[in-house]
Design goal:
Number of helices: 10
Number of domains: 2
Radius of gyration: 17 Å
Distance between the termini: 9 Å
Strand order of the largest sheet: 3-2-1-4-5-6
Low-confidence stretches: none
Largest sheet: 6 strands, parallel
Oligomer: single chain
Mean pLDDT: 93
CATH class of the largest domain: Alpha Beta
Order of helices and strands: EHHHHHEHEHEHEHEH
């Protein structure tokens, strides 16, 4: 039976739905710059870095590096303003129960997010005491689907990659978890996360004992 010692969580769309904040911030920037952008196009930005998100939004439009940096900083200001409205009620259903059960079972937990604002979000949600490590876009430069974020999180936790479970809501995140040699739980529609080791609609009806039972046979 496979040994599991740690769970590594993505942040946006897994712990809290700040993905809506990202959409609103990108949409505001796009509107200001006259760039067509939609919710459907925003789905392609799920789980990727800020720079890659900008590249996808530009759709081949060429801007200078100076302009790109200024736009990313502006988008981030819009996002931060929205994040400041977060409070503990923004934690998604089932998350707090799972984190509590992990702690009680002596299992480790980490955040691994491409977001450079992960510590601020965790602070606003009052979840800091549940996580043994937070790895974000300021610590690791290669974003998902590269496995770097998850490998660094495992290193910070002191857990072998093969003993870690990644919890993700993005296809790129599932790919990154698999590339790291970790088990994967995918949250969301089958067409997006169906290739995860354990696909689930969300965490609202999950119990740690059931998750471990299903994952340890993978």
């Amino acid at each position: 039976m496979r040994k599991i010692t740690a769970f590594i969580f993505d942040l946006d769309g897994v712990i809290t739905d700040t993905s809506e904040f990202h959409y609103q911030a990108w949409q505001r920037l796009a509107d200001e710059e006259g760039i067509p952008f939609s919710r459907a196009e925003n789905e392609k930005l799920r789980g990727v870095s800020r720079r890659e998100s900008l590249n996808l939004m530009l759709k081949g439009r060429v801007i200078s590096e100076e302009t790109a940096q200024a736009w990313m900083e502006r988008k981030n200001r819009y996002y931060i303003d929205l994040v400041k409205t977060l409070d503990p009620s923004g934690v998604l259903p089932g998350v707090k129960t799972l984190l509590t059960d992990l702690k009680a079972a002596g299992l480790l937990a980490a955040i691994a997010s491409s977001s450079k604002n992960a510590p601020l979000v965790i602070e606003k949600l009052a979840l800091g005491s549940y996580f043994d490590a937070i790895v974000d876009g300021l610590i690791v430069t290669k974003s998902k689907p590269a496995p770097d974020l998850f490998l660094r999180a495992a290193q910070e936790l002191g857990s072998p990659a093969a003993e870690c479970v990644v919890v993700e809501d993005a296809a790129a995140g599932i790919d990154a978890g698999k590339a790291a040699g970790m088990l994967t739980i995918g949250l969301g529609p089958q067409e997006r996360i169906g290739h995860a080791d354990l696909p689930l609609p969300d965490l609202s009806q999950t119990h740690l004992s059931d998750l471990l039972k299903q994952l340890q046979t993978k």
